[in-house]
């Protein structure tokens, strides 16, 4: 589970990683640190924020990410 970020630590409300949707694809932009098992697992859940949420209480989404992708 990739939550921890530089400067935010494990404070999820301070997370700055964002996601955008374009042409049917999702792009995640940000940095995660101290993710246990990140090198060992082929996939992980990544927390990312919608940069322009309609409802701030629903700004975050967990994405199933292929760990081999940059």
TrEMBL record:
InterPro entries the UniProt entry points to: Acyl-CoA_dehydrogenase, Acyl-CoA_DH_CS, Acyl-CoA_Oxase/DH_mid-dom, Acyl-CoA_Oxase/DH_mid-dom_sf, AcylCoA_DH/oxidase_NM_dom_sf
Pfam family, one: Acyl-CoA_dh_M
Domain Acyl-CoA oxidase/dehydrogenase middle: 1-70
Gene3D superfamilies: Butyryl-CoA Dehydrogenase, subunit A, domain 2
GO aspect biological process, one term: fatty acid beta-oxidation using acyl-CoA dehydrogenase
GO MF annotation list: acyl-CoA dehydrogenase activity
GO cellular component terms, semicolon-separated: cytoplasm
PROSITE patterns named among the record's database cross-references: ACYL_COA_DH_1 (PS00072)
Keywords tagged on the record: Oxidoreductase
Stretches of the chain forming a coiled coil according to its record: none
Designated name of the protein: Medium-chain specific acyl-CoA dehydrogenase, mitochondrial
Lineage of the organism: unclassified sequences, metagenomes, organismal metagenomes
